[in-house]
Amino acid sequence: xxxxxxxxxxxxPSRPQKGTAPNxxxxxxxxxxTFTGVTAAGEGSQLVLYYTKGNKQERFVGHLxxxxxxxxxxxxxxxxxxxxxxxxxxxxxxxxxxxxxSGGQKIIDNVIIAISYAQHDGKNIxxxxxVIVGCxxxxxxxxxxx
Length: 146
Fold this sequence. Notes:
two-stranded antiparallel sheet; 1 helix; globular
């Protein structure tokens, strides 16, 4: 457990945890909210990210609107589900915070519509090489690299 905690601390994101999406084409109603952090194990479609800086740690929990799908240059389609995202990778989640009522209380449900790797297998991915992978049921718009 200590080794996992240490590896999460050593893999600190250099980018701010909360941010705004780069210019691009996004679904109607998307306000540009993002969260960048180190991945932790999730269940089903739920993704958990942590951002740590000094003594401050912030936890983000969201769920994928749909499996993330992208097509490579050769035309091969790939699907990314939460279970295939390695713990310890750093990624940016593009999400819609939705207020829902559960048990008479209002809670925030973060619906992830896209992800983008900032670090994979211990290697940083430069901003110009990152690809935004859509994770939404809406199919009439596309993501682009930023």
